[in-house]
Each structure stands twice: as C-alpha cells, then as structure tokens.
Specification:
heterodimer; A: alpha/beta; Rossmann fold; 8 helices; B: alpha+beta; Alpha-Beta Plaits; 2 domains; 11 helices; 74% helix
Chain lengths: 247, 307
C-alpha cells in the first residue's frame, strides 16, 4: 500500500498553489511584561499546502507564534486568523473543534503515557467523534504508515525516541488535519530518526497538508528546501522562499 | 452525551485507574481513611445517642401525695400532669405497691421490717413518677406541680413533696453533660469530616497535578472538556467505590471487638448495631465516597481546563 493511499484512502486534496490566506498574522504582538516582548508587529501569511520552516535562536518567539496559532495564548495586540476565523475570538466551546483542524508534533512528543500506541491515536479520533469502526480501520493503517505496526500495544515508555516521534506524527495526521505544526520535532532525535521524521513530514506536505515546522537544525531546513521565516527578538527578520537558513 | 461517549469515558477511566498503579493505590487508601472516619463517626453517634438516652432515662421526678389524698383527687392530678405537653410518661405507685417494694428492698433488714410491723399501718404515701420528653423540661413540670393548678378541686394541697428540688443540682448537671456531649459530638463530627474531605481533595488534586501534562495533550488534540474530565471523574468514582467496600470490611472486626468488650460501657452492642444497619451505613459510605472522589476530581481538574 502506498503512503498516499494509506494517508488519504480517497485522494481528496490537490496540491494547491498559493491562492488565499490560510493563516494570517495581522500586526500581532505578544507582550508578557513591559520588559518581556515575545513577538512584535508580526505580519505574515501562510497559504494552504505550504511547508514553512520557522527558525531563530531560543527566545526568538517561535514557540509563542505556535501557541498563538493553537489558541493556547492570546495576542496582546493584533489578530491571528485561521482562514476567516479570528482564532482568539473563538468561544471556549469552539476551541477543541478548531484544534482538531490542526495536528501537532512536539520535541517532547507529548504522548499520553498511560495509553498504548494504538490508544494514543485512537484517543485523537475519539476526541474528533469518530466511530469505533473508523478507529478500528484507520489506526492500524496509520501505524503501518509510520512503521509502528509492531509496536501497536506498546506504551510510549517502551519505545525509542524516534518511534515516539513517529507515533506523535501518526496521531497528528490521523484526523487528516489541514495543518500540521511541528515544534522542534527532531530536537531529541539522532540523524537517522531526524531524516525519517523529515521525510514523513515532506510526504504529508506533498499530499496537500500545510506544514509549519520550527527548528534549530540547519540540515533539516536545507533538506526541506522550502520557505524559511527567521525570527529574531520577536520580529520577522527574513522570509525566504528558497529555504535558506540564515541566523 | 451519547452512549458511545459515555462508554469511552468509562473505559478510559477504568484503564487509567488500572494503569496508574501506586497513584491509584495511594488515592484509594486516602479515601478509605476518610470513609473510615465517617463510619467511625456514624458508630460514635450511635454510641452517643444510646448512652445519652440511657442517662436521660435515669432522670425523672417523683411527686409524693399526702397520705390522706383520695383516689379521685390523685386521678384528677394524674390526668392534669398527663395532659402537660412536656410529659413523656407517668407511672403511678399506690401506697400498697410502695409498701411491697419497700419490703422487697429491705427483706434482709430485719430491724426495719420489725419497726414497720410495730407501726401497724402503712406509713408510705402514693407517688407519681414523671418522665419528661427532655431533661430541661423538669423545671417547668415542677413549677406546675407547685402552682395552684395542682390543687385538688376543693382547694386542698394533696402534694406532700416533689423531689425535683432535692435532685435539681444532679438533674441540671446531667442535663448539661448531655447537652455538652451532643455539642462535642456534632463539633467532632464536623471537624473530622472537614479534615477528611480536605485530605482527600488534596490527594486527588495531587493525582491530577501529576497528570497535568496529559490534560494539556488532550486539549491539544482537540478533546472536549467532557472527554478530559470524564475519565478522571470515573477514576474518582472507582476510588470511592473501592474505599467504601474496604472501610465496611475494616469495621466488621473492629465493631466485633468493641461489641464483645464494650457493650456494658456503651449500652449498645456495636457489632449488632453495625450488622443491623449494615445496608444503610454502606449506602451512606458509598454515596460519600463516590461523591467525594468524583467531586474532588471535578474541582481539581477545572484549573487545567481554562482556555
């Protein structure tokens, strides 16, 4: 079974060219305290199907940017839009539904420690209201996709770092999100696992899903070779379309 | 909430409980201690109730008629006393009954019996033993007996004496002891229950604090609050259920031990009381445990569910 047929059993997306704004930061600032400005006057647009790498030193504002997209934080000024949705004007009840449109992958994996690989993925599907039949049919597929079918009933602590990260990716894509946000996904991985994770993200992007990747890893950015946004002290200092890593 | 959501929440709660190992055991132990305190309080209240009832039962006042009071006059006064709302019961002791009892009591006292023989007539008067509904009401009854309302129809006083005034100090002291014991019981119950609830709440809060990152992950994957809160509340219910069963079992040998050794002291066989009321006590303990577990979980998790 091909990657494509496993990920999207019925291809429903086309590779989109930049045609409208998917994520739009409009004069966004995030100030925690007068002397702690995390983001300042950010204006950026991410279009559907893009693969955007966000680079910058620690404290440059990468994680804050991600938190704003995930509605974990509210901007001090400005607005963040997801398509036509003002993210931070969502009602509390609508936030979970909004988050289901985004898959997330983190450096520290953020898996549910008391659940097996199967259950970790099934939980995301249950949260999205999927039926038991869908869960039974889709979870093995996605586990196979990330080469973890042999670890179906293993708990996260019984898996290696690379396996955990692949499991986190499987969970992120199981509900076929419009965007996958990967915050330093290779930070804890050796070069081989890093390569595997990047390859999976590229394949997901090839199938039409927008990817937002934050990283410190020059090799990752160069192997992706797509748009790179550089943050410095909370400001966008570079936005290259040709995948250049310059800090 | 749909059936499938409910099923998933219960399954998830059960799995979390069985997989949390030491944390689950520690939580169950703490809830068990709390429920043991509540069971202890229930038994303490029973002991207190029976002991105080026994003491109360020993408090009464006796009205002694004059020797020349007629039967009709005594019956009229008896009816008046019986009609008082404070009176729980009365027992009339006739002169003959009083003499019989006196003889029985002094059957080994030859001198007293001989002196009685030499008198040639019954020197004892009839009496009326009066029990009030509440020990504090004796004073009111005694006042009634000292008033004109207690005089016979022809205006004569047929009451020789009322022993309330001799026993007043003892009755007042007993009344105070009973009231104080009740107050201390209520206060002790209140303090113990509050302490137990706080300890349980903090323990469960700690278990949820341990799971705070897990809660964060659930929120990130878009789980609704019911999906996050539900399994923790189910775990709380399981803690409560297991703790309720455990505390009921723990109190079987404890009540048996007290029943065998302390029945005379308490005035109640604690084991029999426990067995006779086993179902009611279990329901109280179960409801307390389940409510305590689930409510503590619910309150503790709210903090982590803010947007």
């Amino acid at each position: 079974m091909s990657f494509e047929s496993m990920y999207w059993p019925e291809p429903r997306r086309l590779k989109l060219t930049v045609c409208y704004k998917m994520i739009y930061f409009n004069n966004v600032s995030k100030i925690y305290a007068p002397d702690s400005v995390s983001l300042k006057d950010i204006n950026l647009t991410i279009s559907p199907g893009e693969f955007v790498s966000i680079v910058g030193h620690s404290g440059a504002g990468k994680t804050t940017l991600i938190k704003l997209i995930l509605a974990e934080e509210k901007p001090s000024e400005g607005t963040v839009f997801f398509e036509s949705l003002d993210i931070h004007n969502l009602r509390a009840n609508d936030v979970p539904r909004y988050r289901r449109r985004i898959g997330t992958v983190f450096q520290d994996y953020r898996l549910l420690p008391n659940k097996t690989a199967y259950e970790n993925i099934a939980f995301a599907m249950e949260a999205a209201g999927k039926s038991d039949d869908e869960i039974k049919s889709d979870v093995p597929h996605v586990l196979e996709l990330v080469d973890l079918i042999a670890k179906t009933h293993h708990f996260p602590h019984q898996m290696s770092g690379g396996e955990r990260q692949r499991l986190a990716i499987a969970r992120a894509i199981i509900n076929q999100p419009e965007v996958v946000i990967a915050d330093e996904p290779t930070g804890n991985l050796d070069p081989i696992n890093t390569y595997e994770v990047v390859q999976i993200l590229k394949k997901i992007n090839d199938l039409g899903t927008t990817i937002i990747l934050t990283t410190h890893n020059r090799g990752v950015v160069e192997s992706v070779g797509k748009r790179v946004i550089t943050l410095e002290k909370g400001k966008v200092v570079r936005d290259d379309k040709d995948g250049r890593y310059v800090i | 909430m749909s059936w499938i959501d409910t099923k998933r929440i219960f399954r998830s709660g059960l799995l979390n409980f069985s997989r949390s190992g030491v944390v689950s055991v520690a939580s169950v132990l703490v809830v068990t201690i709390t429920l043991c305190v509540i069971t202890f309080i229930i038994l303490l209240q029973a002991v207190l109730h029976f002991s105080l009832a026994q003491i109360e039962d020993k408090v009464d006042i006796t009205l002694y008629y004059t020797v020349d009071a007629s039967d009709q006059q005594m019956m009229d006064l008896e009816d008046s006393v019986k009609a008082l709302p404070e009176v729980a019961s009365i027992i009339f002791v006739s002169r003959d009954d009083a003499l019989t009892k006196f003889k029985e009591r002094h059957q080994d006292d030859y001198l007293t019996l001989q002196a009685l023989e030499e008198l040639g007539e019954n020197p004892l008067s009839a009496s009326l033993n009066i029990k009030a509904l509440d020990p504090t009401q004796y004073e009111g009854i005694a006042k009634f007996l000292g008033s004109d309302n207690a005089l016979a129809k022809d205006g004569t006083n047929i009451i020789d004496k009322v022993n309330y005034f001799q026993n007043k100090v003892v009755i007042d002291r007993l009344t105070n002891i009973i009231e104080s014991a009740r107050m201390i019981g209520i206060l002790l119950t209140f303090i113990l229950v509050i302490i137990s609830i706080i300890i349980t709440f903090n323990t469960i809060r700690l278990t949820i604090y341990i799971a705070r990152e897990e809660i964060g992950v659930m929120r990130l994957v878009g789980a609704e609050n019911k999906y996050i809160t539900g399994p923790f509340m189910v775990e709380g219910v399981i803690y409560g259920f297991i703790a309720a069963v455990a505390s009921m079992i723990i109190f079987l040998p404890i009540s048996l031990w007290f029943g065998e050794r302390m029945t005379d002291f308490f005035g109640i066989n604690l084991f029999h009381y426990y067995i006779d009321n086993f179902f009611q006590v279990f329901v109280i303990i179960l409801v307390s445990g389940v409510a305590l577990g689930s409510l503590s979980s619910f309150l503790a998790i709210r903090k982590y569910l803010k947007k």
